[in-house]
Every structure is written in structure tokens, then in C-alpha cells.
Amino acid sequence: QHKTGKSIPADTLLEGPCYEGVVEVDGEMCKALIDSGSQVTTITSEFWQRHPVLCTQELQQSDITIEGAAGQPVSYVGVLCINLKFLGRVYANVPSFVVPVTEYRSCVPLLIGTNVIKVSRKDLQATYGRKYLAKVKLTNPEWHSSLVALSKCEPGGAEGKVGQVQYAGHRIRIPAGKEQDVTGKVMGGPKRTQCTVLVESDSSKRLPEGLLVARLLANV
Fold first, then answer.
1. At CA 160, angle to CA 155 and CA 164, rounded to 5?
2. Considering the entire predicted model, what is its pTM?
3. Are residues 120 and 219 in the same domain?
4. CA 58 → CA 68, 103, 144, 197, distances in Å?
5. Domain shared by 109 and 189, yes or no
6. What is the extent of the structural domain holding 208?
């Protein structure tokens, strides 16, 4: 008889979210992992070599370093541009790293990273608006799971948003080499509710030379 120290709650799900689906790769159907934790898209060398179209293409060399989830280096033999079709749309010339086959990847040759997932999300939002997640959940649960996971790990999270901090005071002069606290206004949530705000410099905005904005995490 086998005994364990802890019991699993009765309402615990037996299965977690599904992140695997089927994607068309240059005319061939292929099982894929929709991975919101990967920034790049990869295919196995085995799939490349046996694909009737891709096998005729030469690999491009790259010096980009890829790291796995645990920080370990991920080897690859080159880069290949592939055409993907999923959710009724075609995404052409997607750069994909060709990686050695493993036991798991022999069954799931394609891994789709956020470089593709984010573009797909933008297209879905343009077509279905704010209800895009509900639409995808009905037809492609694996994509729904990955899109939800992606939104949770982005700035603002699934329910948050990205905005600007507006300086609320008068014009000031900060001496060279000095720091100064300033008060700003942010757009929060519903009235009389508390929310957490991360303040940081916007890389797309050019600040005056020598001016730095310190990162700040605060409850407002």
C-alpha cells in the first residue's frame, strides 16, 4: 500500500492548460508547442530534413545565443525562414532556429515563440476586438492558454495597463549629480481601490542628456 503525506484537494484539476496544437508549415501539418515562455520559434533538424519543401532550402548562419528556461545554452544548426498557417491566417518568412531533435521534440517538432504569438494576438484583436480571447477559447484552446499566459507575464498583467506618469508640480531645477523626489499623477483603477504601479523610464522617449528616472514600485 502506498501512502503520501499530503492529499490533493478534491477540486484540483486533473489536467492543466493545453499548449499543444497543430500548425501548417509550408503545406505540411505539424504538431506544435505554443510557448509563451520562449522568445524564438524553433523546428527540429529532423523535421527540416524530411519536409519536401524545407529540405531544399539552405540554412542561414547566426551568432545569436539562445538560452533555455533554466539558463542552459540551446544549440542549433542554423536559421530557416518558414511559412506558418494557423487560426485562418498565414505568416510568411518566419525566422526559425533549427534545433537537434529530442525525445519530446520528435513528437512535437515545432515550437512557436512570442515573436509569432504577439503578431497573431494583434491580428486577433483587430478582427474580434476585446472578445478575441473568448473567440479563440471556443475554437483553439491551446492558443487561448498561451495568449492568457503571455498577458500575465507582460507589463500590466492580464488586468493591468501601461500608461504615463504626469508630473504634477511646478518647473524645477535638479543640480548636477543630485537626486530629487517628485510627485506625479497616474491613471488608476476604479475609485477607492488600491493598485500597484511600476514606474520606469520609457525607452521610446528620449530624456534630456544626463537625466535618469529611477524605477519605483508603489501602491496608490
1. 70
2. 0.65
3. no
4. 25, 25, 34, 48
5. no
6. 163-171+181-220
